[in-house]
Amino acid sequence: MATTLLSGFVATPAFAADYSVDVGVETKAGKDAGSLGCVYEETCGLNMPSLGLRVTLLSLRTDPSRVTIYVSRHDLSCCYFESAADSLHVDRRKSTFRVPIFTGARAKGGLFIQNERVGTLYLRFDTR
């Protein structure tokens, strides 16, 4: 599915961007995708109105390969990653990621939280 979802992207250079990323999300409600040109030290985000989601990324100049990712929705029960984490750190040198997203409750202390999978986040970083 990642190939199908991301294969439709047209690579366009982002003006004054330090790194670029293609983002796709697939949920029971549908699919949406887009591209971002991001600048170190600044959050950049993509609204996906058809899904009611926003994907936000942040990378610091001190560690440019590490990107922190958030997926949010107006509903506070969404969106989390594995182990009910509200953010995910990836090494963008790996280039592509396929990450499940969940709805439910935020992790609290040592409690085991089992959330419901609601979709998949696809990321493809420009490694140039």
Q: What can you tell me about this protein's structure?
A:
- 5% of the residues lie in helices and 49% in strands.
- The strands form 2 sheets. It has a 5-stranded antiparallel β-sheet with strand order 2-1-9-8-6.
- The protein has 1 helix and 9 strands, in the order αβββββββββ.
- With 128 residues, it is mainly beta.
Give the number of helices: 1
Which range does the strand content fall in? over 45%
Main beta sheet: strand number and arrangement? 5 strands, antiparallel
- First CA to last CA: what distance? 24 Å
Write the layout of secondary structure elements.
Blueprint: H1 2-7, E1 19-27, E2 30-38, E3 44-48, E4 53-59, E5 66-73, E6 78-80, E7 88-91, E8 96-103, E9 116-125
Antiparallel strand pairs: 1-2, 1-9, 3-4, 4-5, 5-7, 6-8, 8-9
